[in-house]
Fold each of these.
Amino acid sequence: MDIQLDKAPCGYFSISDAGLIQSINQTLLDMLHYERNELLGQHIHSTMSVTNKMFFQTYFYPYIQLYGHVDEMYFSFRTSSHEDMPVLLNGVRQERNGVTFIDCVVLMMRKRIEHEKDILQTKTKLEELYQATNEANKRLELLHEEYELKQQELLGVNHRLEMMASTDALTGLKNRRFFQDSLLAQLALFQETQRPFSLLIVDIDHFKKINDTYGHPVGDLVLTNLARLLQSMSRDRDIAARYGGEEFVIILSGANQEKAIIAAERYCTTIASTDWGEYSITVSIGAATVMPGDTDQSLINRADTALYASKTGGRNRITHADHLVNSK
């Protein structure tokens, strides 16, 4: 690849009909935070989330096979740190030396609303173009509309499946699987950037007594109401999830030990002072802040040990794992 294309002010990649990356310029590698040898020969899907893989498979491929090009498609790639990068994608299918390639140009998009206006204008122009075609093209228009409808239905089903796979059915919070995946992603980001984060494990005090006194339906209502409160108190970038039983977990993005303690005390105090009706709720919280060398399990174990200290220390309180270490 010549230096002008490699350093062009827009991303460029070329894939085979099978989707394998044949070439990629340095501009796009810098956008995605990859090294060239990490992507060459890999499937283009390796740079996409599950949803965008489905969109690419069900829209980009069929369209470029039918028309030979795709213009101004709004899309999102995923960087090596698992962050979505919205782009505008143009592609053309052509042959070189008897081999078919799909060459694509990538422009980073920073203003989604402006792009959506462009998409709407493009759609309007397409509709006007279809209306101007002769009778022979009407069948093609109907088939295209049917295809678009099926595509949207497929994307909708895929979105609902993703939501079901990551959501706790009772409380509506994220589930344990989603939490574990998010924790691994946070650890990977910490290893790359050293940006801190903390983990809280929240356990309802004497929850069995609530079930025994009021019955399991009330117990389920307690879990649901507490989940809503935790969600409402959490920042958009934090992750609140149900870990199991009466235990909840919260990943505090960007929080060091001091900020984790402040947040945990706020959760503990607010829950204890909330009017729950016939019953009262307090929680015990164990906190841990990520350290170099931590794994997902070691971080969970430290937060769980801190939770145990809160329980044995009288409940309705918070304990940070570092305080246990420092007190030894």
Amino acid sequence: MTYPIINPIALDLGFVQIYWYGLMYLMAFLAAYLLANYRAKQLNNWHTQQIEDLIFYGAIGVVAGGRLGYMLFYNLPNFLSDPLLIFAIQEGGMSFHGGFLGVLLAMVLFNRKYNKTFFTTMDFVAPLVPLGLGFGRLGNFINSELWGKITTSPFGMYIEQQGVSRYPSQLFEAFLEGLILFIILWVFSNKLRPSISISALFLIFYGLFRFIIEFVRVPDVQLGYLTFGWLTMGQLLSLPMIAFGIMLLRKAYLKKEVM
């Protein structure tokens, strides 16, 4: 397969340019909103205003945390030399782990407003997230960023500008962290489950999928491999997620408090 050259600008109106990357985020929030409304009807303990605020708080947490996390985890020297780079979102550069921390903080604020417990909200939110992650990775693919390693595998994609074939790691992530993770969490959450278990499953499988894909993805050039000649920042940040997820899942099934 050959990588199709895609203009990152979806629509140029002259006075404003609309980027595919931004549209992918819009699709992510729209998908989360629609899924949240569907889940609210199934659970019957969430109302419209709560859903709207949940998506708003989550969107702020994702964008602010994702961008700040990228600058701190992956691009700190450039950020320190030019702090205004944090606003250049159209160029890409969002960290899932930073966005995840941003969402956690946003959910704490949301819970204070509506007097909900932390894991009640996070168990509700977890199945809404993967499709958004998938859309984000499609944005990376359109931007021609975060490519995988050079390969002669039939799973590779020829990039004419570079004259080499690489693993389309963005599409691998969209498939595993997006579609497959969504199916796992959506099916699992369709039945009554112990409180915390849905959140735990998200942590385990996202961390596992991300850890695996990092083996074929090129590490960020400014960081390279951190140690052992293979460990990347993405893997380092994913390991605590897996460990914490396993601990939470064990706790959930020991307590067996149904959400």
Amino acid sequence: MRALVVDHSEAGPIRFADVDEPVPSTGEALVEIRHIGLNFGELNYVHQWPAGAVHGHDAAGVVVRAASDGSGPPEGTRVAVGMAPHAWAERVAVSPASLGTVPEGVDLADAAALGIAGVTALRVLRKRSLLARNVLITGASGGVGHFAVQLAALAGARVTALVGSPERAAGLRELGADKVLTDLAATEDRFALVLDTVGGPLVAQAWSSLAEGGTIHLVGYSSGQETTFPSAGRTGEPTSEALFGFGEPRSIATYGDMTPTSGELTDLLGLMAAGRLSAPVGLRGDWQDVDDAVQALFSRKVHGKAVLDVA
């Protein structure tokens, strides 16, 4: 069968290859993949995976053979695959713990957009009550950002979406953002929670805008830049940006939760079926054109997620 595999050469980061058919264990279902969802991180940091390995973690398709131990969805079930390894292939063996059943009325291509982006946004925003609190979403025009804006708004937060340019602000107010900014200095708001996908100098800026007791959750590093926190101002007095302060402690939290995603996928798909959550598919195409899709992601031309149809 055909699959997209890791390519460490200059032609990479991925290429098509013929690979062996998957052999499911007793606790795995065999899924025929119809759509794959691309993520910037897994493509930008492809060196973390071995050359020649089937790549990708997010997809959607149909169960063609249920797990032989009786667990998971039966044959014929439409499913979303989230954070599961080796997902960018014509068929994949998947644990039911990484599957969500796609309800009627939800497009399989939209379900393929969930995975890493949707689950990450949901897990971070569930860390605390957001009702009537100020929440900042950086890199809000990306996949995680689009989901986070919607989910924070659904939870009753006052959402500020931060984007890199005015062109990338389109549609965010309609998704639930109360404010859309291109410069954090344009607001004096203090935020109880910051979901940051950008990293770099922006983290230090966000720290200066963090409310007492607030947390910055680092879920991405799209800027590729270092973060420097000034320890003190010119007079020797602590500045608002320094890692110093009175009152309830503020914190910075890393994110790397790769635990099973079935529960979160089910919740997200339920919101989609109810019309309360939309999939941020900014690029849709055929997986034969995956090189073009990868370049569009790297050049920041995709607002939201890139989803490709498996021929």
